[in-house]
Amino acid sequence: MIQKLLCAAGRIPLFVLSFALVANAQSVNYHLLKQVPLGAAPGGGEYFDYVFADSDARRVYVSHGTEVKVVDADTGKVVGTISGFKKCHGIAVPQGSEKGFITDGEAGEVFVFDVKALKITSEIKTADDSDSIIYDPASKHIFAFNGDAHSSSVIDPATATVVKTIDVGGGPEFATADGRGTVFNNIEDKNELLAIDSQTLTIRARWPVAPAGGPTALAMDREHRRLFSAGRKPQMLVMIDADSGKVLQSVPISAGADAAAFEDATGLVFVSTREGVVHIFHEDSPNQLSPVATLKTEFGAKTMALDRKTHNLYLSTAEFTEPASNGRRSPKPGTFHLLIYSR
Asked: What domains appear along the chain, each with residue ranges and CATH number?
């Protein structure tokens, strides 16, 4: 209903539109549904990174140092563990595929695993600090982004081989694909957003993300061609035109942004931060975001995945020590867990 009203904004009184937006904002009310203990990763300490939700297969993949925990998206039950990594980061599972792909930054490799058996079947050499990873349906390629190596390894999933290594000119972070032949990636140390032609495997454009800086998290509204890039220095979320690269709006967020998601069905944008906050915005129009809710989670819960079937949010974190003299807090061994939030 809200989307129909927004589309007809030019034909309805302003007070009606305002009422609809307020009603929509009030309906965004998340609560903690379940906390799932995931234990300690063998020899891996408490390092954790990406969370990936496979909404169709009803699985949630949670990276945790030397292993990836696999959780049933509906029950929260741990259904398996994929192990054998040095320091795993991102997970990608193409829709309907029997193969999944996991980056290992310390090994400089992408591991291929069987999604049914949850066992590693092969390894692909990429580059140092292999981190973010996505599947691009337009090219049918896997794009793994290598932080320290300042590159992207483009993988043919059918043959499990690297078809090209693209120099991205800086430290890549989160990525997303528009499904039409462009892969976007945040270049954190250059304060820019990169557009890659996924057919020719060349750089199409580089755009500044100012007034944001240090961009990490990235999500996309594919229908309206809008990108949502969240940065840490300064702490801002910017909405960007995916065709021109123009920054259309910027809004403040809390410290340590590390994941973002856009929900097509509701027009909601989610940004999770290390401070233990998920900022929730509504895309009122292709040029306007409005804050609608602030979900308090737990300190360190900076990585997040969205289940597009249930609207549930999945975040991983651990218990942390009190701040030291330098202000830093360390995760306590064996306290790693998954947080599931529901509407």
From this structure: 29-44+211-343 (2.130.10.10), 84-208 (2.130.10.10)
